[in-house]
Write a structure and sequence with these properties.
Length: about 325
């Protein structure tokens, strides 16, 4: 099977490309060419440049059995790729996001719930929704699967999430959790996402399929912090941003918003896909073990918003009125 990965040189690609190759697929990447990925063919393009993307449909361009799009963040990006590859691709997998679901639900969203992005996700949710709609409205007959994960994690995460907690735990710095620390979070290990893509490629499907993909268990924000601190073997002070200054934007001092990021993944769990996500406690322990401790200690500097809250709480970065090692 010849597979085209749109993107593929970043965090998701670091797990996806090896999984595809191990499954015996020939992999071509289409991205900006900032990093060479061994054992792949690479097409350099700019997704925001229509002429650049259109080259995928040139008369001498190859055809692909499967496209896996990991880098469509807007409707125009999705539309350019879909148009350029018309008639040259057998199936399509689009990496969506849990952020596409609209406001108004009092439960975890299901695949048939309205999209449009909840207000808390801002432009990201709106634009990822537009990308989903391009595939939902496509009339080219290409079987399409849309995967909607919540928070991805794992070794090499280029979002400062688990490294945020590990760095503070190892250096004794206080960790400020938004609100009351109760916002429910849900995760998917990046290697499990890769396994889901491989399973889909092998199983095949017709029409349009949408899957919320996630580990079944959710965890509150404070409990998540405490788990990662336990994995790191440390007990730094944990404070509540809602008690210090509820007006301070959570993203100024923490990796997540004070809002749920969860999905109903029952459809995926009942599907024929041959993989089941690992429990997050195990996955985060594996992630911690993948780093060198000296790298984690300097991985995540204190943010200005964090420093402001700690000062209001009468604490330095070390948690006792003194600056901590960072």
């Amino acid at each position: 099977m010849n597979v085209l990965v749109l993107g593929g040189s970043g965090f998701v690609g670091s797990a996806l490309v090896p999984a595809l190759r191990e499954a015996g697929f020939a992999v071509t990447l289409a991205n900006r060419g900032t990093r060479r990925v061994p054992h792949t063919r690479q097409i350099v393009l700019d997704r925001d440049d229509e002429r650049s993307v259109a080259a995928l449909g040139a008369p001498d361009a190859p055809a692909f059995d499967l496209v896996v799009d990991t880098s469509a963040y807007t409707g125009p990006q999705a539309a350019r790729a879909r148009t350029a590859l018309a008639g040259r691709v057998g199936r399509w997998i689009h990496l969506g996001s849990a952020a596409v679901y609209a406001d108004g639900l009092d439960r975890a969203p299901r695949e048939d719930d309205p999209i449009g992005g909840a207000a808390v996700w801002g432009a990201y949710g709106l634009e990822k929704s537009d990308a989903d709609r391009i595939h939902l409205a496509a009339e080219d007959g290409v079987p399409t699967a849309i995967l909607r994960p919540p928070y991805l994690y794992g070794p090499g995460n280029d979002n400062d999430r688990e490294t945020f907690v590990f760095a503070r735990a190892l250096t004794g710095r206080p960790i400020v959790v938004p609100g009351a620390g109760a916002a429910p979070l849900q995760f998917l290990h990046v290697a499990d996402l890769a396994a889901i893509v491989v399973a889909l490629a092998r199983v095949g499907w017709s029409g349009v399929e949408i899957y919320n993909v996630a580990e079944a268990q959710t965890v509150g924000a404070r409990d998540w912090v405490e788990l990662l601190c336990e994995i790191a073997g440390a007990r730094p002070p944990i404070l509540l941003g809602g008690e210090i200054d509820p007006r301070q934007p959570p993203r100024s001092y923490f990796p997540f918003r004070d809002a749920p990021c969860i999905v109903d993944a029952a459809r995926f769990a009942a599907s024929d896909l041959a993989t089941r996500p690992r429990p997050h406690a195990r996955g985060f322990a594996e992630t911690f073990a993948s780093y060198r401790l000296e790298d984690l200690r300097v991985a995540s500097p204190t943010t200005p918003g964090e420093a402001t809250l700690l000062a209001k709480a009468g604490l330095g970065q070390g948690g006792n009125g003194q600056e901590g090692a960072s």
